[in-house]
Amino acid sequence: MAPVVQCMGLTKTYGRKIALNQINLNLERGRIIGLLGPNGSGKTTLIKIMNGLLKPTAGEVLINGQRPGVDTKLRISYLPERTYLQPGMKVLELVQYFQDFYPDFRVDRAFDMLARLQIPPQERLKNLSKGTKEKVQLIMVMSRDADLYILDEPIAGVDPAARDYILHTIVNNYNRCGSILVSTHLISDVENILDEVVFIKYGSIVLHAGAEQIRRNERKSVDQFFREVFAC
Amino acid sequence: MLGKLMKYEWKATWKLLLSANILTVVMTGLARCMVYLMGQTGHSDFRMVDFMAVMVLFTYVGSMFAVCIGTTIYLIHRFYTSTYGDQGYLLHTLPVDTHHIIIAKVLVSSAWVIINMVSIYLSVIFLLATSSEIFHSMMEGMVDMIEYLGAERISAFTVIMTLIAFIFSIFAKVLKVGACISLGQLSPNHKLLLSFAWYVGIYVVEQMLQSIYFVVTIYYQEKISHSDYWNYGSYFDRQWETALLAGIISCVVYYVLTWYVMGRKLNLD
């Protein structure tokens, strides 16, 4: 079976600035992969290209062997770094929206997670706090049975207690046949859930290895190793 | 998926735009009451009620402009934020074709433009029709004008085709805004400013083409009729063809531009 993600010579430039430089990367199925790098390293650019929100300058990315398009969007569940919700919508309407467009959306799972967080379905999104909006967005994304979950900085804007809930939600709700790609620079928080890590620096992949392999070979945690690699 | 996109586009816009139409109805009622009160006071003295009536009529005219301009600004803002703003992250990751996204937005926006225009026309007609003196003199004036122009020979077919051409012109206007906003996205910086520049540029080109067309048709019309007197009936009988053709060409050009940027050159910040 083909890897869930294949990047071949993927390059993205903005004028003279190189955001991604000849990325070659294969991500296998059934893995939780951390895309780790400092701010401005190209994590979000890579993720946007996978989702078809940006067009590469050169090279190609394949999701399930296909270029980004309607078919790949059916199989990717994407959590962007920003809030993409319509403020006037009610939580219930958002659930219906996802149910209408994504055949793999599990309504029961969504309501279960909303109930556990005590988020009323009749509440309008504009009345929710920023953190709660992010949780609602995560619930929508994790209520799908996707082949690939792409989570861009899912814990960046929330307090430590909420981080635990978010990571718990991610680990307990994803489709086991699919993969999760988590982008973050808060490594210590996510380290324990990762199977693999991809280090990205100045738009280039500097390391792609198993999390356990790093701990064994380097005798350091992934977080410590990351600090060493990206030391200023 | 087109139906679902249209449903959610409608749901996202109906509350505010329906409120604008309710405002039109309320202002029409108020204005009509004031016209009635003015009629009751006689013409000899200018009293407080006359002053209030004049103020209400001014407010009525202002609110009609506000509804038109407000609707336009709202629809442009909605297109921008839902397509290229933060909400675009959701829209462009839905498993739907780019064609469906564009068509849904154009149909719903055009529907609102038409609804607003109809409600404002009906409001003005209601005001005039219930003020019998003004309405009768206007109707007489219109009949005289039709007779003078020889336009009474305009067929029902022409009227229907003119309406279709008008609807296409609405689609073209909505698509033009969409195309300009989309073209502005091609720049890494100052995207809104560039969108505005595209709009101005396209508007100037359109006006130039329209002027050239009018000069040429007037020249040929005069040559064909061999006289200074025009038969406006036969002239207008053929205008829908040009209007429809121009509308369709505009729709195709602006649609392709929008689709090209949204489908092939999408670069969400």
Give a description of the structure.
The complex is a heterodimer of chains A (232) and B (269). With 232 residues, chain A is of the alpha/beta class. Chain A has one domain: Rossmann fold (3-Layer(aba) Sandwich). In chain A, 35% of the residues lie in helices and 26% in strands. Chain A contains nine helices and nine strands. In chain A, α6 (160-173) links the parallel β6 (148-152) and β7. In chain A, α5 runs parallel beside α6. Chain B is mostly helical and 269 residues long. Chain B has two domains: 1-149; 155-269, no CATH class. Chain B has eight helices and no strands. The interface between A and B is medium-sized, with 26 and 24 residues.
Low-confidence stretches of chain A: none
Q: Please give the radius of gyration of chain B in angstroms.
A: 23 Å
The tally of domains of chain B stands at 2
For the biggest sheet of chain A, the summary is: 6 strands, mixed
How would you sum up the global shape of chain A?
A: globular
H and E order of chain A = EEEHEHEHHHEHEHEEHH
What class do helices, strands and sheet pairing of chain A give? Answer: alpha/beta
The percent of residues in helical segments of chain A reads: 25-40%
The beta-strand count of chain A equals 9
Q: Mind telling me the C-alpha Rg of chain A?
A: 18 Å
- CATH homologous superfamily caption of chain A: P-loop containing nucleotide triphosphate hydrolases
Portion in beta strands of chain A: 25-35%
- Count of the separate structural domains of chain A: 1
Catalogue the unreliable spans of chain B.
none
Give the CATH topology of chain A.
Answer: Rossmann fold
The overall strand count of chain B is: 0
CATH architecture of chain A: 3-Layer(aba) Sandwich
Q: Could you say which overall geometry of chain B the principal axes of the C-alpha atoms support?
A: globular
Pair with the most extensive interface? A-B, 26 and 24 residues
What is the helical fraction of chain B, as a range of percent? over 70%
